[in-house]
Amino acid sequence: MSDSFLDLHPSPCTAGDVQSSSGTSHSSVVRAPSQGGELAWSASRQSRFNECARAHYFATEVAPNGWQRDASALARTVRALKTLTSLEMQLGIALHERAAERARALREGGAMPSLVNMKQRLYSHLRHVWISSRDRQAEWRKNPRQVPMLAAAYFGRMPSEAHTAMVREKLERSASNTIGLDLWSELAACRPEDILTVDALSSYELPDPHPDGDPVKVWASPDLIFRADERVHIVDYKSGTLRDAEAYHRAVFQLIGYAVFLRHSAKVLTPTEGCQGRLIMLGDGTEYEIPISAEDIDLAEQRIRVGAATMRDLTILADAAAVTALDTAARGADGLIANSDEIVERARRAVYPMTLATRICTTCCFRELCEDEPNGERDLVACQESA
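-> structure tokens emitted (387 positions)
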């Protein structure tokens, strides 16, 4: 196993430099059969659901149960798998944290971290993740919230020297681009009270799409929101790339979704105030300006409602499937069911189909849970993709 990544740091680091956050959110729906419960929506949750309903099931229905004292072995496994990460993901998290730190310094009149300081802290964070992944798998299984774990390490192979060299180059480039953003001079010209939100997780409620249902809790975590030139500016940093038009449109929808948040929760947007979105690609410094109209916000709100309704519909079907499975088992066992939890889990899981795009499975943290399940359609698609 190569330890080349330990050489990434350009200068010695201290224990105080280590960043220990795994960057994985565990806020999810905990739902027992036919008992309802809060339904939550976020852009990341919708994206996962769109890619693979089975992965959505593991992440939102099984993983939260893994934190209960009487959790099943499966639930404990899933809660840990959900936290698996990558060097690129961790670099993105650390870059977002450093950008937020600079925005807060400008709002609060503090000192702006230097490029050298930023690089040292980025390297320190990745060193911590690397060492944890190499040496602390047993601790990670017990407390995955506190111990970061690379998916590559979990699946038996630490990232190669070539891969870590690529991450190092990306870190150097992204740190320089982040320090050099024109955004900082814009914020310096703002009044402190006009820097409205800096990397804050918030939620608001939309009425449930079903007539008699509960409200839908929508989670939003905008990187930066500030007011300037009689407009509200919504900034979203991207540490990766927008590979295609679909990725670009997803990123734009996420920006407009933050405008929905401003309308419903923060009450920032006034009917006459303009709204401007901005995607900032930290990897190459490219910026995309996205004008956001009231009509755009209306359409985004409708999409959120439709997405929440779709996810709820599948949950209702899973509730019904679990009840039916338990009833069937009870009739065949004179009312005595020894493995009710297993019956419920199998019935609910079957309602959530696996993706047909098997290339998605290669990077899915839950892939080992689906490997033994037969699926003729998936096998056919896999053959077509490899042809």
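Residues 294-332 form the longest helix (39 residues).
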